[in-house]
Each structure stands twice: as structure tokens, then as C-alpha cells.
Fold this sequence. Notes:
60% helix
Amino acid sequence: MAKKRTCELNKYNKSCQKQGYDKLLKTTYITWRKADPEELYNDAYQKYLDIPEVQRVNKQHTWYSNKADKLLRQCAKEHFFQCANALQLGYYSVKNRTEKQEHEYKYYKDIAKEILIKVENNNLYVSSYIDCFSKAKESAYEVCLTHDEYKKNVGQPSY
């Protein structure tokens, strides 16, 4: 019923005929998310999330699949916290990291931390990390801010 009514609207009729209702819904949703300043959105991260979970890792289950890895690296480069954090966690889980892997682990952890400090993503709530910096010892895999780093944080979100 909704499909028929939507596709009958002048605004969506040509799109429904050209790309189909399901594709229209997806592109409209993505357009809306990109335009909404309250939404966290990154195209590469969305594509990563669209990959079925079982296809996000390689066949050996030792790392991300090539497609997932490429998407995560792309959105980490665009300073999207979820991607930088996923990569640092991935490297953290590698036992006996090589020197290169150790460098990558520290690199992505630093990016994730920098994003938290600068609150570069719209609506990125740091509240889930607050008690992290109050712990006596930061765990190796968590991206935590020190109290001073947290205080430097400009535009702190309200809790």
C-alpha cells in the first residue's frame, strides 16, 4: 500500500519506474541522513555496515575482508570515530603483532582519540568514555581520554 502511494506521487514516480521502490527508499534515506546534522553519517561506514557480518572478515577469520578493510580505512581517513576505533580494535586483537601492525594499531588508536578530543563528528557523545579516563589505568584496547584531554574538548555535548 505504502509502495503504491509513494510511487504514485509526482516527486517519486520517475524514480520508482527507473530504479524501483526499494532503491528509492534507500537513496532517499541516505540523502536524509546526510542532510540531518543530528545524524552521524559516513558513506564508507554505511557501505561497511551494508556488508553482511559474515563477509566482513577474511576466510581465515584473521582480519577484515579486503572490501571491509578498504571501507574502514577510507572512513577513518575521513575522521569517522567508528572506523578508526574498529581498526585499532582489529589490530589490538592480533596476537604477536608485527612492527608494521603495531604502528597501524597506534596510528588508528591515536586517530580515534583525536576525534574524541576534537569531537569532530557531529553529535558524537563522549559520555560513554567519561568513566574511562577516571580509571586508574587505561586498558590497552579502549580509546580513553585523560581528564586534561577531556577538559580540552571544545563543544562538549550535554549529557
